[in-house]
Specification:
The complex is a heterodimer of chains A (547) and B (182). Chain A has 547 residues and is α+β, with helices and mostly antiparallel strands. Chain A contains 16 helices and 15 strands. In chain A, strands 5, 6, 7, 8, 9, 11, 13, 14 and 15 form a nine-stranded mixed sheet that branches. Chain A has a two-stranded antiparallel sheet with strand order 1-2. Chain A has a two-stranded antiparallel sheet with strand order 3-4. Chain B has six helices and five strands, in the order αβαβαβαββαα. In chain B, strands 1-5-4-3-2 form a five-stranded antiparallel sheet. In chain B, a hairpin with a 5-residue loop joins strand 4 and strand 5. The chains are: A alpha+beta (547), B alpha+beta (182).
């Protein structure tokens, strides 16, 4: 009967929980921009009334020329930014990084694929190595300032939008409408989530692929997904944290701010990163009855460790990409795709095998903000898993905190003769493009020639892994990690070296000694009690009471 | 005599205590899955459809979605619902046990835990059925046999597609569809 009652109670409870009302399953579409932006904008200028913008623009650079008639310094500012140069010289390691140089384990490398990759460059016309980085009209103002939602840069057009309606992806039957450049120009505004997300949500070749904590679900997220960007709450734009001055957007993964000692960010202050948590929340961020205990954790734990308990909480992110299986054909000799159980690509002849995962529990590492990259020139040991980037840090250096990361694994080509990573040509109508001819030899030879690097002529595939700091998708505070999620065995931080966690770690000798002492104490108490009873009875013949 | 009675009472209390403490493990089972969330769900769904005996999918509910809509987070929990009129009909026809409709449709829960692994939660239909007399006992014993087949995975077969509900049911995201018979 008890079994039944308990079972029935659980069943009822489950039914009640499931009967909770639930809203729409998908994010609402963004409000039609342009008009909406005008209604909410606090701008002192209505670009729709600017004479320079009253024309039918034929190309993106034409629009830029018009923008520059008023915003005379804008292009020069953009020219100094990473969004333009795709280059970053890490002062700590002296490594030359940025998209222009780094080889990752997603689409791997930009060189020889410029026309495709530069759909995400804030410029027009970067189709080969001869791109003019000094030309001001090559800056794309609209990609960051469009509020109409109609401006879109198509891969393969070297950073231009399409100027006539075109089918994209090719042979998909889907048509992309050419934007009305004049209308877009007359409706420019402050950069919003839609603008940043047009590239950053789709990194790695698709929605949610690369970062794990940045995807299209952040266009209009619910509170559960990001407490700062909650569309019905604080509704932060990206720029609220990435506070931009002179087109220089702070915050980035090449030089991460780990230890913020200065507390809250002051207006006018230039020496700190406004995109860190502490820039708003200050040094000891917790308040309330458990504040001391919680604040004592902040010396060694990044805020993100507790406050982003899982990433990819709205849609799956790619966790594995194996290039070594790319190039298979179906029985008719044609490239094909296979889907996984959730309908995502599990195999693509162009790209190989993939694995996706949602609600991913991060990997935790010590991190001091310094990242070492395996660059193309770096000699590697192919018998080991190659770290595309290594997050430096240790429990003892006084500069590190425990950070959550996405660890992305894969296999990609390397030069067997030189033991170096390879650049290869994926995109293009040319004979060498892997996505056209599925010939690794030609694709690699062309890619390496493009960058002027030596290639032994022999390639194989090496296992690689890449780490991505997790810092977006901050959950509401009530969903932060609870004590028992780390202070237990097994717990979240099991793989993190150099820490002692009460509740998780134990010294067998100490435990044995402690329990031994407790046992002996119990024995002593019992023995003493028994002795007292025995002595008492012995002193009273006949077990009687004397009154 | 008092000592004897005392011993019996003590023995009963201990037995009840042990049974109570083991109840959750007896009534419900938790099995780790070798696959991710979606693939586990898809494989179970296809097993259900291939089991015969009138089994049909009657829903796929996302219990975590309601929490998300309320602004909170829980790790994914998906409920696969299945029904067979071959088994439900005799129970629903009998007034004395119709209240067991509360346990219908048959549910299999697929969820992720803090260790990052995916688990499958099922009810011990055979044991539960035995508490309600021979009719229910017989039916539930057969359900239990079929339920075992739902969880037999063949690693050599490629991952099937997850079967999404064809139409949302009122009140809970992801319900409905599948053409179940309950």
């Amino acid at each position: 009967m008890i079994h039944f009652l308990r079972g029935a109670l659980l069943a009822s409870l489950t039914s009640m929980l499931l009967a909770l009302p639930a809203g729409a399953s998908s994010d609402p579409q963004p409000a039609p921009a342009g008009e909406a932006a005008k209604r909410t904008s606090s701008s002192t200028a209505d670009h729709g009334r600017f004479t320079a913008l009253q024309q039918n623009f034929k190309s993106g650079p034409d629009v830029t020329r018009a923008c520059l008639t008023c915003h005379t310094e804008a292009a020069k500012q953009v020219h100094k930014s990473k969004h333009w140069t795709w280059e970053f010289l890490n002062p700590a390691t002296n490594q030359r990084l940025g998209k222009k140089h780094v080889i990752n384990n997603f689409c791997t490398a930009v060189p020889s694929n410029y026309e495709f990759c530069t759909a995400c460059h804030v410029g027009y016309g970067w189709k080969d190595q001869h791109f003019d980085f000094a030309a001001q009209e090559n800056v794309d103002c609209l990609v960051c300032h469009d509020t109409t939602g109609t401006y879109r840069k198509i891969p393969g057009l070297a950073g231009h939008p399409t100027y006539k309606d075109m089918e994209f992806p090719p042979k998909s039957g889907k048509m992309v409408k050419a934007p009305d450049l004049g209308n877009v120009a007359r409706n420019v505004g402050k950069t919003g989530r839609q603008n940043c997300g047009a590239c950053h949500f789709y990194g790695g070749g698709g929605d949610a692929v690369k970062h794990g904590d940045l995807d299209s679900s952040l266009r209009n997220p619910g509170r559960y997904l990001d407490v700062h960007m909650d569309k019905d709450g604080l509704n932060f734009s990206c720029g609220e944290c990435h506070k931009t001055t002179g087109h220089d957007v702070p915050g980035g993964r090449y030089a991460v701010t780990v230890l913020e000692k200065d507390g809250a960010h002051m207006r006018g202050k230039k020496d700190a990163n406004p995109a860190s948590c502490q820039a708003c929340h200050g040094g000891p961020p917790h308040k309330g009855p458990r504040a001391d205990r919680l604040n004592s954790h902040t010396a060694k734990l990044a805020c993100q460790t507790c406050h982003i308990p899982e990433f990819a909480r709205a849609q799956p992110t790619k966790m594995m990409w194996d290039w070594s299986t790319a190039g298979k054909m179906d029985k008719d000799g044609k490239p094909f795709k296979l889907k996984d159980s959730a309908g995502h690509d599990a195999y693509d002849s162009k790209k190989g095998d993939f694995k996706y995962e949602s609600n991913v529990i991060p990997t935790y590492v010590w991190f001091n903000g310094q990242v070492d990259y395996t660059l193309r020139e770096t000699k590697l040991d192919p018998s080991r898993v190659i770290e595309i980037n290594h997050f430096n840090g240790s429990p003892d250096d006084g500069k590190s905190k425990i950070w959550p990361i996405k660890r992305f694994v894969g296999k990609q080509p390397y030069d067997v003769g030189n033991n170096q990573l390879l650049v290869f040509n994926t995109y293009g109508q040319n004979d060498t493009a892997f996505w056209t001819n599925f010939n690794w030899d030609k694709a690699i030879e062309f890619g390496m020639k493009e960058i002027g690097a030596e290639y032994s002529g022999k390639y194989a595939f090496v296992s690689t892994e890449m780490s991505w700091p997790i810092t977006h998708m901050v959950a509401p505070k009530e969903d932060a990690l609870a004590c028992k999620q780390c202070h237990t065995a097994p717990g979240r931080l099991d793989q993190v070296p150099g820490i002692y966690l009460p509740g998780r770690h134990g010294n067998p000798l100490l435990d044995t000694a402690g329990w031994g002492l407790a046992g002996l104490t119990l024995l002593g108490v019992l023995g003493h009690g028994a002795g007292r009873i025995f002595a008492s009875r012995k002193a009273k013949p006949g077990h009687g009471h004397h009154g | 005599m008092v000592k004897l009675l005392g011993g019996v009472v003590l023995g009963l209390l201990i037995a009840v205590g042990v049974a109570f403490s083991m109840m959750d493990k007896l009534m419900f089972k938790e099995t780790p899955s070798p696959y991710g969330m979606e693939e586990t769900i898809a494989r179970i769904q296809h097993n259900i459809q291939n089991t015969g005996n009138g089994w049909a999918l009657s829903g796929l509910r996302n219990a975590a979605k309601a929490v998300q809509n309320d602004g909170g987070n829980v790790l994914p929990v998906m409920m696969i619902e299945a029904c067979s009129t071959k088994y439900s009909k005799p129970i629903l026809k009998e007034d004395t046990v119709r209240f067991l409709s509360i346990l219908m449709p048959c549910k299999i829960s697929v969820y992720k835990k803090q260790d990052g692994k995916v688990y499958i939660g099922t009810m011990n239909a055979g044991l539960m059925g035995r508490m309600f007399g021979p009719l229910v006992g017989d039916v539930m014993a057969q359900v239990a046999e079929d339920q075992k087949k739902f969880l037999v995975f063949d690693p050599n077969t490629p991952a099937p597609q997850m079967i999404l509900p064809s139409a949302p049911a009122a009140g809970a995201q992801g319900g409905g569809g599948g053409g179940g018979g309950c």
